[in-house]
């Protein structure tokens, strides 16, 4: 049963990354994508969040921590509502989070097994290449609307 759940979770992640389109260049977004109360301090500071300034080292650190924490803990607050819906096929964020938590299995990955590289973006949207020990790679897109970075999509 555990193997079936793990396979289902992997399939959901794979489908969430499908789309056949090249990722758009990082840009400021205007639609409602944030889930309530992300953990961590804001990644954007001052004029960065207002003008879409360059991605700073502090942003890169918080982005890496967000992905590491999501991989190891599966926290709903680290995902945008859109990404949470893509993971669960449930439109209501609260119901989607309950479903996600019910299906989430603790990961065997430690934060030490995750490597982040190729950061691109600005103070409000960014992409990062993540490699997990063993050769699993993906590109994550994250959004910061002033409350902390949240995962908005994953392309495997």
Total individual domains: 1
Q: Largest sheet, if any?
A: 4 strands, antiparallel
Q: SSE string, helix = H, strand = E?
A: HHHHHEEEE
The total count of helices amounts to: 5
Beta strand %: 15-25%
Q: Structural class given helices, strands, pairing?
A: alpha+beta
Q: Percent of residues in helical segments?
A: 25-40%
CATH architecture: Roll
Whole-number mean pLDDT: 75
Compute the CA-based radius of gyration: 15 Å
> What is the CATH third-level topology name?
Nuclear Transport Factor 2, Chain: A
Strand order of the largest sheet: 1-2-3-4
Alpha carbon gap, first and last residue: 25 Å
Fold and architecture overview:
A 4-stranded antiparallel sheet has the order 1-2-3-4. Residues 1-51 have low confidence and may be disordered. The two termini are 25 Å apart. It is of the alpha+beta class and 156 residues long. The longest helix has 17 residues, at 57-73. It has 5 helices and 4 strands; from the N terminus they run H-H-H-H-H-E-E-E-E. The protein has one domain (2-21, 42-155): Nuclear Transport Factor 2, Chain: A (Roll). Strand 2 and strand 3 (136-144) form a beta hairpin. Helix 1 crosses helix 4 (81-88) and helix 4 (81-88) crosses helix 5 (93-103).
């Amino acid at each position: 049963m555990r193997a079936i759940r793990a396979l289902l979770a992997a399939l959901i992640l794979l489908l969430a990354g499908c789309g056949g389109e090249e990722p758009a260049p990082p840009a400021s977004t205007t639609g409602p994508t944030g889930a309530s109360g992300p953990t961590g301090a804001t990644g954007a500071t001052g004029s960065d969040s207002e003008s879409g300034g360059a991605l700073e080292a502090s942003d890169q650190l918080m982005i890496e921590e967000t992905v590491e924490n999501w991989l190891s803990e599966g926290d709903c607050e680290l995902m945008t509502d859109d990404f949470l819906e893509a993971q669960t096929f449930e439109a209501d964020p609260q119901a989607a989070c309950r479903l996600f938590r019910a299906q989430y299995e603790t990961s065997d990955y430690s934060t030490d097994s995750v490597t982040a590289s190729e950061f691109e973006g600005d103070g409000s949207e960014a992409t990062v290449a993540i490699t997990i020990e063993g050769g699993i790679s993906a590109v994550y897109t994250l959004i910061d609307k002033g409350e902390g970075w949240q995962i908005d999509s994953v392309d495997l």
